[in-house]
Input
Amino acid sequence: MKKVRTHIAKIQSGEKVTIAGHVQTVRVQSAVVFIIIRDITGTIQCVIEKTHPQFEIAKSISVESVLEITGSAVTMPGGGVEIQIESVTVLSMAEQLPIQVTGRGAETVSSEVAQDWRFLTLRRERDATIMKTLSAITTGYREALLQSGFTEIFTPKLMGTPSESHAELFKMEYFGGTAYLAQSAQLYKQMAVAAGLERVFEISPTFRADPSFTTRHATEFITLECEMGYIGSFDEVMETLERAIAYMLTSARKACGSEIRKHFGLSDFQLKRQIPRITMHRAKQICAEMGVTSDRADLSPAEERAVCEYVEKEMESEFVYITEYPWESRPFYHKKGISSETGKPISVSADLLYKGIELTTLAQREECYETLCKQCAEKGLKQEGLQWYLDCFRFGMPPHGGWGMGSERFVKQLLGLPSLREAQFLFRGPSRLMP
Output
């Protein structure tokens, strides 16, 4: 009869249990062997004495081998619980490790080498916590929108035309023609609104042929998409994302709050107040007052950091919406408006900044077919390749808006990770296509 496995986090003193996991540490003494076992929920010390018939087997076990151990859970003198081993089965003996997974020396493994041996580095509690956090925030995102009446959709990732522009596209041969990997679900989300689904979302892979070697870019990542129809104003879009973020943070806190506190020192991450809103004109003034300027129509990375520093100090918020972006810096399908402060053309949109970087762009879309065609020409795009998309606006399109937010970037900022690659299961960049 198969033994019932107990996860380490659920073990209570006084129980007889069977556990299984990787060997994190083996300490051999003359009369006893201590084995630290690790599973997805935590670690526990297991003890086998010299008088046990399997003592010699225990002494020879290598680090990161996979064991099944049955024994009694007892309270240790200093507190905590350990397992007194009754039987140990080696399910898989590990060879000598190519890198240090845990303990002294593990922190010296370079980022590139860590990516080469990603399946080993993910055995670390810290790295596993990152994956759990990513799972929790995407789960929270899905639950938040489902509870608000959204429908989850699944759009194609093979496209016959560019999704937004001809830049940053992966091309591929497609049965004698050319296909592109989707750099956004934007056009399909709007098609769903035109189809009468009204409010839709998607958690989907996104591909960008971006040659950037930065800590916040990747060529493949997971996007949290959303499009909502019948909006009364752009404020509804910002408010909906704000509620979703609050739900996402709560989901992460409930799922792995104690692990996040242990490995990243965060114990109080939640949305405590409404996200402040600052116009681009005012943001540029704030940056100038802080001695940070640029010639860009939008915000440079340094300006994003400066604005966030100001908002955190003056408004006690790690998030901020930057509104009224110049029209020339936005895509053709955004609704055009006029700045309340400068009188110049703007996009009815906003960037959400979080701890110094942009998380996502939100926008109200242009729903009028004739206006959209004019804006397409204004941006220098050929209408022919986009006609399938433009046709969605010819037969009735409600006012709508939405966003697309990188989930791994969100986790990077939440946990204070040095690079986006740590927030991904497997990183993809200009020079990384394996494993």
